[in-house]
From TrEMBL:
Keywords (A to Z) from UniProt: Nucleotidyltransferase, Transferase
InterPro entries the UniProt entry points to: BRCT_dom, BRCT_dom_sf, Ribonucl_H, RNaseH-like_sf, RNaseH_sf, TerB-like
The protein's name: DNA polymerase-3 subunit epsilon
Keyword match Mitochondrion: no
The Exonuclease domain, residue ranges: 5-173
E.C. number(s) listed in UniProt: 2.7.7.7
GO molecular function: DNA-directed DNA polymerase activity
One Pfam family named in its UniProt record: RNase_T
Length: 415
């Protein structure tokens, strides 16, 4: 009889409750044979179509999942990858609950027998690692298995696959190993590879240089736009830089704006220079450039692709002069007025009730929903995919990070 394979899986999720609104944000499948040899490693981020929950746990950034598939996009391929296998996971019950819920949302269903016959390496530790801890790290430490990046689906699944192979080495003559794999082969429900496989999307690698958004703007010649279009772009740039951070959404909006009004890359670079010079003039208006102002200039230079030579020139001492009539405004909370509505979204560093109380004390109104009357949305992650964030962007409401809330709205410098 043909032998099946082990499909070692791991999921990273937005929370703990698949029956409510939590979703899978990353999934990995490691295909393992009876000898413990890894035959394939497949992993992808998944767009959960909601905010990412506690990002401090899984480390997935919202901008990483903007181009990621939804679960419904990969459901058929995942169904094929699991066919003819025995599913394995560390804390299997957690992963299969999310798998079952996601397949149901996608209008598909794994065979009734598939998930219940799976193997849980955490439960198997009772037999093979008596007295050891039950976490994946504890079990891996017992065998000196390297767990490179905990709470990364691919690395957790790979460590679990090695853990299973160690169990098989400890008990090589156990008939259950071969019996389960024979049953898996006999009950395979897919005979052929799907006609199209979805390109997986992986986490950003730290240290990898990302393409600057200016490089995505089309080079045009000749250009027929004029000052009005330039001001339109600068106005969008001003709003995007409100919190001195350009989210992936904001970068895409700037690229789209340049494309729509037919700005060339050369002109955009010139406009960025004008913006930077305007902020520098404002900072030097009193003849003093403070450390905070220099840090602000350095931040803007990095975000807009301003050269180090331009930044150095802007930091050189100059006499106090009235700043040029700015085409842009320095980031501040001055656009907010007492009574303005502010909406919060995502898991903040402080309890939501405490933040709402501070907003009320500062004269603003915390609002539970995004309407056209809302002035600002504060997100735990400025690239949040929550319904509130999507609605705010559609209304043109600024979406800022939590640092902006504390440093510019609630506790601005000098106040």
């Amino acid at each position: 009889m043909a032998q099946g394979y082990f499909a070692v899986i791991d999921t990273e999720t937005t929370g703990l409750f698949p029956g409510n609104h939590d979703r899978i944000a990353e999934i990995a499948v490691i295909t393992l044979d009876r000898s413990g040899t890894v035959l394939d490693r497949w992993e992808t981020l998944v767009n959960p179509e909601r905010d990412l929950g506690k990002q401090s746990i899984h480390g997935i950034r919202a901008k990483d999942i903007l181009e990621a598939p939804r679960f419904v996009d990969i459901a058929q391929e995942l169904d094929w990858r699991l066919s003819g296998t025995i599913v394995v996971a560390h804390n299997l019950g957690f992963d299969v609950r999310f798998l079952g819920a996601e397949f149901q949302r996608a209008g598909l269903a794994l065979p009734d027998f598939y998930l219940p016959r799976g193997l849980c390496t955490m439960q198997m530790a009772h037999e093979y690692l008596p007295g050891a801890g039950r976490s994946l790290q504890d079990c891996c430490d017992s065998f000196s298995i390297e767990l490179r990046h905990a709470h990364s689906a691919g690395d957790d699944a790979e460590a679990t696959a090695v853990l299973l192979s160690r169990y098989m080495e400890l008990d090589p003559d156990l008939d259950d190993w071969d019996y389960l794999l024979e049953q898996a082969a006999a009950t395979s429900w897919h005979a052929a590879t799907p006609p199209a496989l979805f390109a997986p999307v992986h986490r950003s690698t730290e240290g990898t240089r990302e393409t600057h958004f200016v490089d995505r703007i089309v080079v045009r010649l000749p250009e027929i736009t004029g000052p009005a279009e330039h001001q339109e772009y600068l106005a969008l740039l001003d709003r995007a830089l409100l919190d001195r951070y350009l989210s992936a959404h904001e970068q895409s909006a700037l690229v789209a704006m340049a494309d729509e009004i037919e700005l060339s890359r050369t002109t955009v670079i010139e406009l960025h220079g004008q913006y930077f010079a305007s902020v520098a003039d404002t900072a030097w208006a009193d003849g003093v450039l403070t450390h905070d102002e220099l840090d602000d200039l350095a931040t803007i230079a990095q975000l807009l692709g301003i050269s180090s030579a331009q930044l150095e020139a802007a930091s050189l001492a100059r006499p106090a002069t009235p700043p040029r009539a700015p085409s842009v405004n320095a980031a501040s909370s001055s656009f907010l007025e007492p009574g303005d509505l502010v909406v919060l979204t995502g898991d903040m560093t402080r309890p939501r009730s405490a933040i709402e109380a501070e907003l009320e004390s500062a004269g603003f109104k915390s609002h539970p929903a995004v309407t056209k009357k809302v002035k600002l949305l504060v997100a735990a992650d400025p690239d949040s995919l929550s319904g509130k964030a999507r609605k705010a962007r559609s209304y043109g409401i600024p979406v800022v990070g939590e640092d902006y809330l504390w440093n510019q709205v609630l506790h601005p410098a000098g106040h």
